[in-house]
Amino acid sequence: MRFTLSSTALSNRLNTLSRVINSKNSMPILDCFLFQVKGNELIVTASDSENIMQSTIALDEVNGEGEFAIPNRTILDAVKELPEQPLNFEVDPESLAIKIVYQNGLYNFTVQNADEYPHSQPIEDGASVITLSSAVLVDNITRSLFATANDELRPVMNGIYFDLTPDALAIVASDGHKLVRNKNFTVKSDVPAAFILPKKPATLLKNVLGKEADDVTIKFNDRSAEISFADGVLTCRLIEGRYPNYNSVIPQDNPNKVTIDRRSLLGALRHVLPFASESSQLIRFRLEKSKLELTSEDVDFATSAKEQLSCEYTGNAMSIGFKGSSLQEILSNLNSDEVELQLADPSRAGIIIPCTQPENEDVLMLIMPMLLND
């Protein structure tokens, strides 16, 4: 079997797919990429047994069809330093010997039999389907990943929750202290459906998908999802279990509203946070008409900091405490120049929304308050 393809195209795809492969695998064959030559295409697969990603590359010349498994480190190291040029592969299916010829040299090594390589089970017809643009999905995943938990006791909190309803598609993440809810009004379904996407496939999609307008199709059932994009497909196992009712923790009546420049608030947090207690990271917000004062202190080390910002504030004068690092993460994952902070009282969660929402979307972030010792 012989085939020819671009060195750059192969190297780029292998680098992307290599993120699927674990450093330690339960099966030795999972240290390999699966190469399948069909027609005028090469299908390359990487797997860790729970996540299987495939990418398709067009072949310039091809003679024969077949499949083999190629050690990931060997092929990655072989092609990463090569400038753009055609690579000629010659594979002997009997002896499993492979020869790769390039402009000034060649590689000889052995490949492995592909029979042991695990294949993904196709998702049966009748599964739920969501279609949305690549750029929107990347934005939503990027905005949500930081809020997922690392909770062994409640694994449902460790992923991103996709909640399809007759009104919208809500993409949600929470660790119990902070919450992100993205609503997309262009995607909806009369038949409600939901799934929890684990962190690893979510991160893979964030790194693989472009900011183009290409559509991504997510086909899912109770156990797994098949996510098809422009030049590949990712099949992954989902987190099983019931996600908490996220809407019930979002306070509805918040009469105290602050409108403030996001970068200024982020800058002030960075200034005062180093002087807060390392264990609690408590930052006190003191709100009065058109003025926000941020203070932090660490009694053990006799350090403190204070900074004032101008803002638009409607409501009663109040003090409320937040964990500085969590608030920093929330503000860093919003793009709007200005944000609105909505508060009910010092014991209830604060809501942060961008003053400029993405088109056809509603983004809301929530942070739980910390107790102030007055």
Q: How would you portray this structure in words?
A:
The protein has six helices and 26 strands. The chain is of the alpha+beta class and 374 residues long. It folds into three domains: 2-116, DNA Polymerase III, subunit A, domain 2 (DNA Polymerase III, Chain A, domain 2); 128-248, DNA Polymerase III, subunit A, domain 2 (DNA Polymerase III, Chain A, domain 2, Roll), CATH 3.10.150.10; 251-367, DNA Polymerase III, subunit A, domain 2 (DNA Polymerase III, Chain A, domain 2, Roll). Helix 3 (134-144) crosses helix 4 (199-208). The longest helix is centred in the first third of the chain and has 11 residues, at 7-17. The chain is elongated and about 80 Å long.
How is the biggest beta sheet arranged? 9 strands, antiparallel
Q: Give the structural class.
A: alpha+beta
The counted number of beta strands is: 26
* CATH-scheme architecture of the largest domain: Roll
The name of the CATH superfamily of the largest domain reads DNA Polymerase III, subunit A, domain 2
Shape annotation: elongated
Portion in helices: 10-25%
